Amino acid sequence: MSENPRPDVKIRIEHLNVRYSDGTESLHDISMDIYTHQINVLFGPSGGGKSTLLRMLNRLNDLADVSEQEGRILLDGENVLARDYDVLQLRRRLGIVFARPVPLPMSIYENVIYGLRLAGVRDKQQLDATVERALKQGALWDEVSDRLSDSAYDLSGGQQQRLCVARSLALQPEVIMLDEPTSGLDPISTFKVEQTLQQLKRDYTIVIVPHSVQQAARIADWAAFFLQGDLIEWDEGRQLFTDPQDQRTEDYITGRFG
Amino acid sequence: MISRQLSERIAFGLIIVAAAIVILPIFFIIGYVVVQGLGAISWTFLTEMPREGMRAGGVMPAIVGTLLLTLGTAIVAVPIGLGGAIYLSEYAGDNATTRAIRIAIINLAGIPSVVYGLFGLGLFVIFLNFGTSILAGSLTLGIMTLPVIISTAEEALRAVPQSFRLVSTSLGGTRWQTIQRVVLPQALPGIITGIILGVERAAGETAPILFTAAAFFLPRLPASIFDQTMALPYHLYVISTQVPGMPIQIQYGTALVLLVFVLSLNLVATLIRRHYRKQRVW
Amino acid sequence: MGLEVNPVDQEEKPDRPDPTGLDRVGAPMGDDHPDRDSPKQRVSLFEVLMERAIQVTGISTMLLVALIFLFLLWEGVPAFFEVPLSNLAGARWYPIEGLYGLLPLIAGSLLITIGAALLALPLGVATAIFIAEIAPSWGREILKPIVEILAGIPSVVIGFVGILVVAPLFRTGLNIPTGLTAFTGMVLLAWMALPTVVSVVEDVLDTVPKTYRDAGLALGMTRWQTISRILVPAGKSGILTALMLGVGRAIGETMTVMMVTGNAPSIPVSPLDIFASVRTMTATIAAEMGEVAQGSTHYHVLFAVGLTLFVITFVVNLAAASIVFRRTRRAERMLS
Fold first, then answer.
1. Which of A51, B135, B215, C292 is the most exposed place for a label (fewest CB within 10 A)?
2. Which residue range is the domain that position C319 belongs to?
3. Rounded to whole angstroms, how far apart are CA atoms B215 and B64?
4. pLDDT tens digits, residue range C273-314?
């Protein structure tokens, strides 16, 4: 483990166990921290439970068929899995971007402010300002500022994904979670998204499931390696990718399997 | 032994003949009614009361009655049908209640229309004392229409990609907000198509209104929903089987008006479906 | 185009490993979904009421079926106390003299339904094969809506044309005293049941994987051999469902039957009797209910006939549904 002083903890995961009703995918006794203003990378072969973990953090898994869950997820010290936790507020604080872009069937403008509308914001000036800020942060403003009322489906794949990032940013979340956000993108778009992430981490906490080991190594401040529902190793990115402590981690990052 | 090519040719020939037996009479029936009935159609036929024991004059009260019953059917069936569809598509889990509801809907769809008529007579006309009335007829037809509306609307709702629901939820949307802002608008064309198709069927039905709403002859328009009414399908039945010496022109004219009314609803539904299927982005 | 950017389709099965994990959410939320009970959430009262209303409408479909059954029982069961069973089981339906023999009505319904089913099934399967497999795609685009239009033609219009055109045609063509016969009813009923049969069979043929067709053709089979030896057997359960639904539709049809079958309540004994007049259960209710005194024996017997129809269609539709359910379950098993 690294000797450096650790950053502030944003989310602490304690002994998290999850199982779906159909028994396919699960998480076993996961304990780790998500650090503030860092890029926290969750990586490993598919089916390892990374996406499940992301969806546990903002309780999107409430929609799925989860049969068993135990443990605690503490966001700023409060257990988000508690029955009376304000889930709607939680989801505004933890934005998520999915593997493939999912623009809602409405205009670019309406996509960005969708979350605000749900929260009941009506003030036109505030909405306009949010659209501009979010699209600028998502590095899309220059490309779409003159056609905000166009359908979001008129955008290219890379633009759509940045729109989805902007849509999450519009709610000014504290944490942004990205689930293989560049898996469908070309190298240039991927580079753009990664660049954006480096800027975003100044204001936000980032949790990302990268689409390759290379990407993981490029961007990770902190990295956690998942294998079949187990957290194998979790350390500072520099440390983990240069000197992994577990044989399985080494095998995976050196490309011996996966 | 005949060759495989020959047997294929024979089989395809028979199939084409069978398909023709099915499809050609559709054109024939519609064409026949149009050709025979066109001569009867005039402004007065559409806007006047029947006269001389229905052997002269127009069919205006029957047209009005069918419009009223169609409207009433929609008012009864749309809220319940839409609610049921939303329940099945967005709320119902995979459990015994859901299966029971599905079986109930299948069963509702299969009940003979005349049995709906009996039910309407027993419950609405007699037990609830609505009398033979537009209200009783609309309720009966509305219940009969439910399964069509529920199943088409549910299909339309389910066709909306799950990812939209996921995104809306992830942005802090409640279940109802997600339904209201994303799912319903996207499913709307399909739902409207289903409503029109359901109502169309109700508009052409005779048996359910026989004892619940229909009047043999009414010398005036219904004044309230507690009045009986004339209706095109029942009127056609009456003048083609119950009234001796009925001029054939009037019979064909009535059939044509009914057919045009029902088929234009059908056409509207088809056009809506086509139009929005092309526009859909997902 | 839209499909490429759409990560999740309804049809996606959770068993396929999917890196996005999006399809996890395919299952609808259960009633015990934690969202609902969370007191801290700012869910408006309107929303709570809306969700309750939606639940109520869902449940109401079951209540409606129960209610219909209840009213038929309520009004129909007294018949079995007022009329001796030997009378109800008799061969004469003559209410004016207190004769309520249901046999001729049941026989009439069965005769016409079976006849219609026998006619409709081959025609329907053939038409479905034509539309799904043989016709060029532009033909399909046109033919499907046309068959749907048939479903939309009011039965009273078909009865009307039946009286004026079909019955006279059969009378002269077959040289029989009247055209208003069981046979005329069968033909028209078969034709009216066709949209149901065609659309169910066509759906089934659509779900047979394309690889089956390719496999057949790759083995050097002709298109017809592929259809008759692979597709039709693969769609067997669907064809059975179509038959059941067609029967359900035919036995409940009222207006057309009442208008074209002549309505004489007699029991068919010889095959030639299909060219005689019959009367069905549905037609009897429709024709007589309007003239009976409410609460009279005749009234109760007509409700008992309705009850019988309800039970028959209930069983037939349940059977059809269970075939469908079994098929989907098997399909799910095959995919998992």
1. C292
2. 79-335
3. 13
4. 888 888 999 999 999 998 898 889 999 999 999 999 999 999
Residue of A nearest to C17 (CA): A47
CB contact under 8 A, A92 and B182: no
Which of C54, C200, C243 is the best residue to mutate to test the B interface, defined by the most B CB atoms within 10 Å of its own CB? C54
CATH code at C154? Answer: 1.10.3720.10
With respect to residue B10, please indicate whether it lies within any of the assigned structural domains. no
Q: State the amino acid at position C15 in one-letter form.
A: D
In a domain, A125, yes or no: yes
Please report residues of A whose CB lies closer than 8 A to that of B181.
114, 117-118
Q: For B140-191, how does the pLDDT look when each residue is reduced to its tens digit (9 = 90+)?
A: 999 999 999 999 999 999 999 999 999 999 999 999 999 999 999 999 999 9
Residues facing residue A33 across a β-bridge: A12
Whole-number Å distance between alpha carbons of C325 and C12 = 19
Into how many domains does chain C fold? 1
Q: Which residues of B touch C152 (CB under 8 A)?
A: 197, 200-201, 204, 262-263, 265-266
CATH number, domain with residue B75: 1.10.3720.10
**Is C74 within the bounds of a domain?**
no
Domain hosting B259: range is: 58-279
Residue C19: per-residue pLDDT: 35
Q: Is A60–B170 a contact, with Cβ atoms under 8 angstroms apart?
A: yes
CB contact under 8 A, B117 and C156: no
ipTM score here?
A: 0.92
What pLDDT is stored for residue C328 in this prediction? 57
What's the pTM value of the predicted model, to 2 decimals? 0.86
The closest CB to that of A84, out of C22, C27, C39, belongs to C39
Q: Which of C2, C91, C73, A173 is nearest to B160 (CA)?
A: C2
Closest C-alpha among C328, C319, C288, C318 to residue C305 = C288
Domain assignment present for residue C273? The answer is: yes
Q: Residue B165 contacts by C-beta under 8 Å, 6 or more apart in sequence? A: A63, B178, B182, B183, C25
Residue A177 falls inside a structural domain: yes
* Residue B239, pLDDT above cutoff 80: yes
* CA distance, residue C15 to nearest chain A CA (Å): 8
Which chain C residue has the Cα nearest residue B199?
A: C152
Q: Reduce the DSSP state of residue B45 to 3 states and report it.
A: helix
Contacts B107 to C, Cβ<8 Å: 65, 313-314, 317-318
In a domain, A1, yes or no: no
The total number of structural domains in chain B stands at 1
Instruction: Determine the residue type at A251.
Output: D
B89 touches chain A (CB under 8 A): no
Q: Which residues of A touch C21 (CB under 8 A)?
A: 25, 51-52, 55, 179
**Total domains, chain A:** 1
Residues 59-98 of chain C whose Cβ lies under 8 A from any Cβ of chain B: 59-62, 64-65, 67-68, 71-72, 74-75
Q: Which residues contact C317 (CB under 8 A, 6 or more apart)?
A: B106, B107, B109, B110, C244, C245, C248
Residue C263 lies in a domain: yes
Please tell me the least confidently modeled range out of A18-32, A199-213, B153-167, C69-83.
A18-32
> Six-digit token pair at C82?
């007022």
Query: Could you tell me which of C34, C123, C127 has the C-alpha nearest to residue A85?
Result: C34
Question: Which residues of chain C make contact with A103, given a CB cutoff of 8 A?
Answer: 5
